[in-house]
Amino acid sequence: MAEMDVFQAIHTARALRRLKPDPVPDELIAKIVDAGVRAPTGSNLQNWRFIVVKDAERRRQIGEIYRASMQIAARAYLNRKPPAHMTRERQQKMMSGAMYLAEHFGEVPVQILAWLQMTADVEHPNLPAEQMPIFLRLMGGSIFPAVQNMIVACAALGLGTVLTTVLAYKEDEVRKLLNAPDDMRLFATLPIGYPMAGYGHGPVRRLPLSDVTYLDSYGNHWPGK
Ligand SMILES: Cc1cc2nc3c(=O)[nH]c(=O)nc-3n(C[C@H](O)[C@H](O)[C@H](O)COP(=O)(O)O)c2cc1C
């Protein structure tokens, strides 16, 4: 398959949660992770760690933990009002996709868990105490660029995925299952597989640029759409 233009991949990499159990070749998995590690990390630490889960029994076990994690998230978010740009119907469609994924997570052929290894010096930088909340807020900045590169790579390769984070609610269980050391922090998990018919890539719809972008000063909307 001819590889697609990067903008085409970005514009079609929507959240795909209904994935076939068919295996994904190792060379494609390697290509996806390789795209991930082309992203930057703070101070170029490259302290990301990716655990690719392919073993059927391991995937099933992760799937069980994912389902329990999703229950925590669902309790917290289920009655949340949709944002202004989203209809209730659209929100319900998203939630039912998320619940479907939670029920079938263990059947997805590849699960990539994206962690940061936070050694003591990284986790406790020599910053004034009042800066620590900011540091904590910025921490994910060293892993989510890699995750997004992998999402875009999946789209370019015809593979479906979705950024999920709920597994972090059960980080300790996951860590134990995968023998990950205590200093690893779990940020995201990508379920990867070929999309089911009727649930493939398509236009990523977002708010118009002019709604979310300002020129020179907040409130001065970027012109046009
Ligand atoms: C930080 C973050 C966390 C997310 N966590 C989950 C999740 O745990 N489960 C899930 O099914 N989708 C999750 N999503 C996917 C979003 O719901 C999805 O990207 C969003 O609805 C946009 O979908 P679209 O690209 O198809 O328009 C997450 C996305 C982000 C950015």
Keywords:
single chain; 225 residues; alpha+beta; NADH Oxidase; three-stranded antiparallel β-sheet; 9 helices; 3 strands; 41% helix; 10% strand; binds flavin mononucleotide
Structural summary, described in words:
This protein is of the alpha+beta class and 225 residues long. It has a single domain, classed as NADH Oxidase. The chain has helices spanning 6-12, 26-36, 56-77, 88-104, 120-123, 132-138, 144-156, 171-177, 209-212; strands spanning 48-53, 110-117, 184-192. It has a three-stranded antiparallel β-sheet. Helix 1 (6-12) crosses helix 7 and helix 3 (56-77) runs antiparallel to helix 4. Flavin mononucleotide is lined by residues 14-15, 17, 94, 98, 101, 162-166, 204.
Please give the structural blueprint.
Elements: H1 6-12, H2 26-36, E1 48-53, H3 56-77, H4 88-104, E2 110-117, H5 120-123, H6 132-138, H7 144-156, H8 171-177, E3 184-192, H9 209-212
Antiparallel strand pairs: 1-2, 2-3
Helix pairs in contact: 1-7, 2-7, 3-4
Residues 14-15, 17, 94, 98, 101, 162-166, 204 line the site of flavin mononucleotide (FMN).
